Amino acid sequence: MNRRQFLNRSIAGTLAATLSPHLMMCSTANNRQLDEIGIITNTIQKPLEQNYEKTLEQIAEIGYDLLEFGGHYGPSKQSFMELLKSLNIKPIAGGTSMDPLLKEPEKHIEEQLSMNKKYLVCYWPWLSSAENLTTDECKKAAENLNKVGEKCNKAGIRFAFHNHDMEFKATPEGDVPFDILLQNTEPDLVTTQIDLYWIKKGGGDPIAYFNKYPGRFELCHVKDMDDTPKRDFACVGSGIIDFPKIFAQSEKAGIKHYIVEHDDPKNPMQCARTSYNHLSALRF
Questions:
Q1: Cα 250 to chain center, whole Å?
Q2: Can you say how many angstroms the Cα of residue 266 is from the centroid of all Cα atoms in its chain?
Q3: I need a surface site. Which of 22, 33, 267, 274 has the fewest CB within 10 A?
């Protein structure tokens, strides 16, 4: 842990009692905490577009260790990578949807490798709107994931798929799409970037899935849900998702990296800071 991280996490620890009732319940039970915390760029998209250098400097000052992102910012990929290195921010993941991955897999694999990322993520494993998924369509999606995963494996990068809420709506045949994907993908070729907001939104239970498919969830999008009938996005720690309870099962789940996300925060930098403070103070 560097000096910046130590100072931020020390400050965050003093705020722990005010951040979440879940934190109060778990602080005395265990003493595990997150070693690294990442953020995906869509959480801070507007500030990045206004001044990417200043924004990334602020992200580093807050204490973030990892960045999930697509293309580079600034005049060149090299200059962007040098900026991240100077700020001690490590690239972790990036990706696209299934259609371009099937058309040009090598292009997208090389793009991630050229930016030193560990994971290529399929954010949308479907070739349709996924509004009325059938069992056959889900099995075909799993087959496609395996195909891309095999190419990633040979190239030396880990492949993951990301869930939304539609994967938890049963098909006409009575199957759950998320289960079909997990049952029909090869663990050595395909891991999962589990989005905690979307699985809750879809009515799924992440802990039940950790128990059912241990070790299958290497990446975790840490996204909170507000306490309204709409169940909209919330900055991490200000919503109703019990992160300590979920994180306590992280070893069983196989989670290696935690990445903060909010699709459209009103104040992106404030959301990034409070989310980090909440997570760095968690004990589970």
A1: 14
A2: 20
A3: 267
109 half-sphere exposure, CB direction, 13 A CA radius? 18
How many CB atoms neighbour CB 137 within 10 A? 17
Euclidean distance between CA atoms 204 and 71, whole angstroms: 32
CATH of domain 3-281: 3.20.20.150
Decide the pairing of beta strands 66-68 and 219-222.
unpaired
Sequence-ordered strand ranges (E) for 6-118: 38-40, 66-68, 90-97
| Rounded-to-integer distance, Cα 192 and Cα 123, Å | 10
| DSSP 8-state class, residue 170 | P
pLDDT above 50 (res 14): no
Please state, rounded to an integer, the average pLDDT across all residues of the chain. 92
pTM, full prediction: 0.89
- Which pairing describes strands 233-234 and 158-162: parallel, antiparallel, or unpaired? unpaired
Is residue 21 over pLDDT 70? no
Residue bearing the bigger pLDDT, 23 or 32? 32
